[in-house]
């Protein structure tokens, strides 16, 4: 166990229900309060490069100028090439808008198409920030689930057809890794068209598909782009959340409308970040994907050795969503952090899911995962001594 000499407050002092911050952010702040302690932090689901990738030599020239609002041409060209290559369907520069990460893209889309009182169908579990954004623009989120890539389309049409104006999808799904089957995605696109709803496909994990699985995008299906947006980013697919570079793909008309919104808010995305993103797109992310694949293999082999943990090996994505044998997952996460120095993120980071779940990042360094698994097993044993497990 990781036992630092510094005094540790009781675990009840880690997370407060009165805080405006998420439980994830509160646990990160807790670690900052004890710089002398050594923590094992596995709350982030961003895969980590085995080696550090540097910026281009000419990067400094981007610091002294505003980048074009739509995005730098070299980055737009690389994004268009990536999307066209992966989808075997040409994407033009006029269909792309560079954003400050995928969440920025989602916020602009939701705001541009806000419909007070309308229903937004959200594939669940869903990152809590997404339904919160939808509510802020007048939508009422309603959650639906996919299982092995399938969705009950008939139930969605029967229950919510009259007031649905937005459908949000995430494939591979964060945090379960479920990948929508091509015919299911096609049916969801058709449903959106039938209802006059906007469909947003969040594909920030589309590099990560395992065991011969394939990630399908709306652009593979020949659907009309008029009411469809695809969102992506450098954060997960290229392990670069600090760049804050994302992009969206839609019709040139939709991109033009959102370009004005972006220009009013922040003029442009950081030119230096765009230059580094261009460099990363040139290099590719095969090394990163392989690191995630190795972490997936390790976790699938090692997690069954910890009594009581239940999980499914994900088809895609960068994490395993594991259910712990505890009655109060927040209390356990606080206990693990305060007593053992293990920082976990729980299902409280999501909506549309219930249970004692934590997410375990497949893209963390092997040594970090080894330490985390050892502490997780020890933590459950220690927790069992003070709290009867179900």
Automatic annotation (TrEMBL):
One of its GO terms (molecular function) is transaminase activity. The keyword Transit peptide does not apply. Residues 60-374 form the Aminotransferase class I/classII large domain. InterPro entries: 3metArgNH2trans, Aminotransferase_I/II_large, AspAT/PAT-like, PyrdxlP-dep_Trfase, PyrdxlP-dep_Trfase_major. Its cofactor is pyridoxal 5'-phosphate. Transmembrane segments: none annotated. Keywords: Aminotransferase, Pyridoxal phosphate, Transferase. The keyword Transferase applies. Belongs to the class-I pyridoxal-phosphate-dependent aminotransferase family. PANTHER family: ASPARTATE AMINOTRANSFERASE. This is Beta-methylarginine biosynthesis bifunctional aminotransferase. It comes from Polyangium mundeleinium.
């Amino acid at each position: 166990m990781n036992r630092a000499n510094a005094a540790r407050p009781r675990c009840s002092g880690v997370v407060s229900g009165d805080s405006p911050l998420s439980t994830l952010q509160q646990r990160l702040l807790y670690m900052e309060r004890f710089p002398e302690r050594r923590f094992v932090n596995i709350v982030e689901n961003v895969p980590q490069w085995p080696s550090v990738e540097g910026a281009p030599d000419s990067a400094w020239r981007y610091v002294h100028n505003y980048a074009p609002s739509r995005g730098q041409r070299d980055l737009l060209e690389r994004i268009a090439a990536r999307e066209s290559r992966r989808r075997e369907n040409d994407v033009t520069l006029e269909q792309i808008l560079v954003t400050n990460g995928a969440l920025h893209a989602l916020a602009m889309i939701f705001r541009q198409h806000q419909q007070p009182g309308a229903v937004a169908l959200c594939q669940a579990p869903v990152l809590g920030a997404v339904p919160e954004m939808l509510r802020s623009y007048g939508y009422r989120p309603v959650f639906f689930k996919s299982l092995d890539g399938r969705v009950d389309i008939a139930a969605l049409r029967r229950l919510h057809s009259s007031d649905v104006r937005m459908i949000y999808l995430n494939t591979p799904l964060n945090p379960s890794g479920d990948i929508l089957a091509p015919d299911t995605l096609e049916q969801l696109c058709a449903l959106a068209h039938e209802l006059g709803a906007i469909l947003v496909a969040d594909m920030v994990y589309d590099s990560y598909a395992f065991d011969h699985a394939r990630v399908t995008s709306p652009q593979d299906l020949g659907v009309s782009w008029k009411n469809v947006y695809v969102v992506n980013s450098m954060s997960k697919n290229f392990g670069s959340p600090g760049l804050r570079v994302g992009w969206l793909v839609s019709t040139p008309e939709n991109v033009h409308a959102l370009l004005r919104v972006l220009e009013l808010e922040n003029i442009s995305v950081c030119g230096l970040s765009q230059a580094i993103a261009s460099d990363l797109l040139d290099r590719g992310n095969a090394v990163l994907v392989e690191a995630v694949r190795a972490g997936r293999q390790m976790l699938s082999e090692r997690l069954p050795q910890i009594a009581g943990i239940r999980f499914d090996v994900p088809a895609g994505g960068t994490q395993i969503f594991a259910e712990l044998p505890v009655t109060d997952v927040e209390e356990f996460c606080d206990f693990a952090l305060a007593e053992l120095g293990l920082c976990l993120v729980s299902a409280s980071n999501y909506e549309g899911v219930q249970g004692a779940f934590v997410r375990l990042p497949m893209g963390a360094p092997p040594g970090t995962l080894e330490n985390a698994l050892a502490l997780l097993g020890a933590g459950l044993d220690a927790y069992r001594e003070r709290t009867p497990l179900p």
